[in-house]
Write a structure and sequence with these properties.
Layout (H helix, E strand, L loop, with lengths): L2 H4 E5 L2 E4 L4 E6 L10 E11 L7 E7 L2 E10 L1 E5 L4 E4 L4 E5 L4 E6 L2 H4 L4 E10 L10 E5 L6 E3 L3 E7 L1 E2 L2 E2 L8 E8 L4 E4 L5 E9 L2 E2 L2 E2 L5 E4 L5 E4 L4 E8 L6 E3 L2 E3 L2 H12 L27
Family: Belongs to the pirin family.
InterPro entries: Pirin, Pirin_C_dom, Pirin_N_dom, RmlC-like_jellyroll, RmlC_Cupin_sf
Protein name: Pirin family protein
Length: 299
């Protein structure tokens, strides 16, 4: 099979060098803004930061979306305006549902900073269906042990969200969603079925191919609807599978996402006016609203 037979589009990342680590962003892109409910896809690192340093994403707001943080290495301390304090570690999931509005911060834990913290993982944003965009904000931490794992000797797949290969993750979903972390040993393979409306594959590390077509690292490969395929690796690989129910496009401005442009304008006004709730224990600083529209902020 050829690229045209397999893929709707291949998205190359915009890479940001943030002084010590890189972020590769494939969604949103001009050519494609969403894959299923996924509208933001970042690979952070991998990197080892300098001893005594770390990441410090200051308090900032979100509306009408859910963020999903999944790490391969390192740790991040999450705090939010609900009063949540949670440490995300490799293989676990932090699902933060913004709904009508939430504020959160993400920082390297103090015990990690002394040795030089590791940073490696994926952060995604998921659009909420219009009927629940203004739901009450919520936070959910799913441990590594709670997520189902499928193994066949040469392939291991952890289901992060939704149902795949006959197993379902306990992570809350608001629309049809699939999300998985796939590890292929040398010579390993795994079928990718065609049930979801939209699906994409992202090669984080190693080498992999789909029906003989090689994948390039940090590209997001959006599979054609209805195409079933087999993912393979000769030397070993880590691949993320994401997608789900097709959704209407969303407006994205800075950290705000909504089906309504007017709702985003109201969120901009409210953040400028200091009307969002604060993060208990982390309220002395915040990220100001940018003068030029962006899709996300980093410190």
């Amino acid at each position: 099979m050829t690229n045209d037979d397999l893929f709707d589009i291949v998205l190359t990342p915009v890479t940001h060098d943030l002084g010590g680590f890189k972020v590769h962003r494939t969604l949103p892109a001009k050519a494609r803004t969403m894959v299923g409910p996924f509208l933001f896809f970042d690979q952070m690192g991998p990197a080892i930061l300098d001893a005594g340093t770390g990441i410090d994403v200051r308090p900032h707001p979100h509306i009408n979306l859910a963020t999903v943080t999944y790490l391969f290495g390192g740790a991040i301390d999450h705090r939010d305006s609900l009063g949540t304090k949670a440490r995300i570690e490799p293989g676990a999931v932090n699902l933060m549902t913004a709904g009508r509005g939430i504020v959160h911060s993400e920082r390297s834990p103090g015990d990690e900073r002394a040795k030089g913290p590791e940073l490696s993982g994926i952060q995604t944003w998921i659009a909420l269906p219009e009927r629940v965009e203004e739901m009450a904000p919520a936070f959910e931490h799913i441990t590594k042990a709670q997520l189902p794992v499928i193994e066949d000797g040469c392939a291991t797949a952890r289901v992060i969200m939704g149902s795949l290969w006959g197993h379902s993750a306990p992570t809350t979903t608001y629309a049809g969603t699939i999300y998985a972390d796939i590890l292929l040993a040398p010579g390993g393979s795994l079928p990718i079925d065609a049930e979801a409306d939209e699906r994409a594959l992202y090669l984080c590390d190693g080498d992999a191919s789909v029906e003989g077509v090689p994948l390039d690292r940090t590209n997001l490969y959006v599979l054609r609807p209805g195409v079933a395929a087999t993912l393979r690796s000769e030397r070993g690989a880590r691949v993320m599978l994401c997608g789900g129910e097709a959704m209407t496009p969303r407006h994205v401005w800075w950290n705000f996402v909504s089906s309504s442009r007017e709702r985003i304008n109201e969120a901009k006004r409210a953040w400028k006016a200091g009307e969002f709730p604060v993060v208990p224990g982390d309220s002395e600083e915040f990220i100001p609203i940018p003068e030029v529209p962006k899709t996300v902020s980093y410190p």
